[in-house]
Design a protein that fits this description.
Length: 321
Amino acid sequence: MRFGIRKKFKILAPGNSLRKRVAYSLAIARFILVPVIFLAVYYLFEMGWIVDRIVNVDAPAATLAQQASIETLEARRAERNYLLLHDPTYLAANHESLGKTRQILSQIQDLQPQDLGETQNALEALSVYEQRFAAAVAAMGQPGQGDADRIQAVVRAYEKDLNDLLRGAKVKPREQLIVELRNRVGSFDTQIAETVQEGNPALAPVTAELQSSIQEVLKLLTELETENWKRVENDHREARHLLRQAEWALSIVSGITLLFSVWVSFILPRQVVKPLISLREAVDHAAQGDNAIELEIEGRGEVADLARSVRDLIARLRQPA
């Protein structure tokens, strides 16, 4: 057996046992991953809720308000034609359009309970218009024969202009179509009112009231439509803000998780591998017959226990047979 200078090997195994350190590291990694998963699920549900509200509530309510405005304008058109021609077909068309408008307002109430006040005001204004139109129908007399040609010319021009506008509706945005329809109705109101009043002067105050009541209905419907489109815009802004917030939050948490994983990948192997390398060198010296080695062991755990066992084994080998 060879004897020489006693060589020291320092076995440093700080902390708890290897099993506990690995368990703690995995637990912390999972604990950090929990916010990532939670935030992803949270933002996913938030985005889904906003998109669902836009697609199924706000946008349909705004579209229904536009349809209600179109039906109201159709009712106005039928009203004017009836006052000019006394044709019951236009009276039925007026009632049908008003009925559709009521149904649409009921659908808006079902979609947007918070618009209950606005829809009730629109329904009340619609009832006022119906009452005034019924009064106008009751006050009407037969049109004079001499006015028939002039009345028919006014109606033809009025219908031709509206039909031309509606034929091009497919290539125009809905908002632009609504504005143009309202402009057409407004431009013809004065001319048609003058024609009706000339044929039957008793209708002069009634037609003025009809015009004011239908304008009130259209005003309320426009406000309802505008309010719902504002909600769509607000939802869109909220979704964009939530998306940016999700990007920042997930980036920060993911960065922290990445840094921790890098730290664990460097620190944990270093604490485990370094004492094992020192222990292997000591065992190699002992295997070569050099028992003049000394192990300085610090710490506890599996690695420290293994080093102590090796030290005891080397001590036994030093003893004479």
